[in-house]
């Protein structure tokens, strides 16, 4: 837990971690409330709440949101305006009732941050469970497992931009459990807001504004990791009608689910939507002349547009920098620093030859930044690979330096770098290049996003029984998938080149080496359950549905199999003498005509 000493940390009131102070991180632990409010005014950026998902914590790998904090820092956000609670203790899974258990934790944290920073509106970047939990807070969910009640004060007015990464707003299928069941009480009522124009994106674009000051509309951005374990169970569950909805090819299963919160490409897509409701009127510092090559003795001046306090000074800082590549990182060295403080229109003179980075700041204004090549040849790098269209299998991305003497480096995360002017991609990525000449002069970083084409023709979600009966899989695949998912858990298959596969990026069976039953020339007319232990009770169905107490009970007499060409699945529930229950399923292919 890392917060400022005077921040009133709420107590975890439900679910894992109940009774302890909420963990996580937020703000600058070295300063107090007054200093935090100054930063809010200086940056003019809406604070951001990062809300993790199930089984995660804000700062514990792998389900943390530390990469989002890194992206925000690089985009000009100070630690004072980045906050992330851990509402599941150390990262415990809350499977059945995660929303009603933890809604007060997030609601209390949201209000504590707003009071501490003296702001009315924040942006939220949420992942997985965090998406629906944030929505439940805005909707007014009461912390009560049953019945589900929505009688708490709504918090729509607190949201400026709501970013939902790999959420499940429509549940995880009708066969899921607890609050995740599609069509269940919680999921049905979650998206039933009537205020703010109603629909799935209340108070969105074109809707009436929120109550309270400042009245505003909410910007919604929903990102889906196509084929991850959430999207596979219920395709489209991460989308909201009325939102900016994007789908990304980042890998299947948990790989894609984790990658979506760690992807620079995804962040770059929603970054322009942040700060839709700034805490103060926007202002910006402008530098003249703009970045570029200049002669020694050039004077760089700074002026403010949209200024609310004409008396506030401008601070200009110029650093002459050289850069070296060391063990996979770009290490800058500041060779010289010049600082000037003055009124609007103040300037700084650059006399020494070299590469200069100039920053101009003023209270309540977005900083101005520029790069100047003083008395030296500018170094540049240009990405020559086009990104206008998605690529299919793989893509070679190449960049060219402005000087043959410069060395080019590339990076896929903006932190770790490798030597080389090209890199091969096999999934969505943001590629960065930089060129460094022998004197340590580095080019501005060139960055471009590339998208891999979603490679499937169709998709279908269902249990292994559903897929078998629909003819998407054969007996061998039934055995393989039931070993992986069980008989009654829904998952998604993708149609690629005529075959239904689990991972469209790697079209191969889910489990190799599955046992093959002997080939049958004719569909059996009856079956028996010969492996039943004495004292056990067996109930069964012939349509693949889950056997219940009202399903037929096997009495030892062979069970007739319905004739026909359509495959069927015999589902069986065995209750042992000690009360333990076990489910199995037997796939029976359709009839094969006599030769």
TrEMBL record:
Q: Supply one GO BP term.
A: lipid catabolic process
TM segment ranges: none
One term of GO molecular function: hydrolase activity
What the entry lists under Gene3D superfamilies is as follows: alpha/beta hydrolase
Domain GH29D-like beta-sandwich residue range list: 522-556
Coiled coil stretches, renumbered: none
Alphabetical list of Pfam families matching this protein: CHB_HEX_C_1, Lipase_2
Under the heading InterPro entries, the entry gives:
AB_hydrolase_fold, GH29D-like_dom, Lipase_EstA/Esterase_EstB
Q: Which domain of life is it from?
A: Bacteria
Protein name (database record): GH29D-like beta-sandwich domain-containing protein
Q: What is the lineage of its organism?
A: Bacteria, Bacillati, Actinomycetota, Actinomycetes, Nakamurellales
